[in-house]
Design brief:
Elements (H helix, E strand, L loop, with lengths): L6 H15 L4 H40 L1
Amino acid sequence: MLGDIGFPELLLILVIALVIFGPSKLPELGKGLGRGIREFRKATREITDEVNEAIKDDTAAVKKEG
C-alpha cells in the first residue's frame, strides 16, 4: 500500500500537514490516525477469523455427511 510512496513524497505530505494543521495539532492527529488504523486492523482480523471459522464448520459438516 505505501510501497510506492518514497521519502520525498512522505516529506512533502508532512510539510503540507504542518502548514495546514500547525505544529500543535500534529501529535493529536497522529494519535487519532494510529488509533483509526489499529481499529481497522482489529476489525479486519475479526472478520477474517469469523470467515475462517465458518469455513471450518462447513468443511466439518461436509466430512460428516460424506
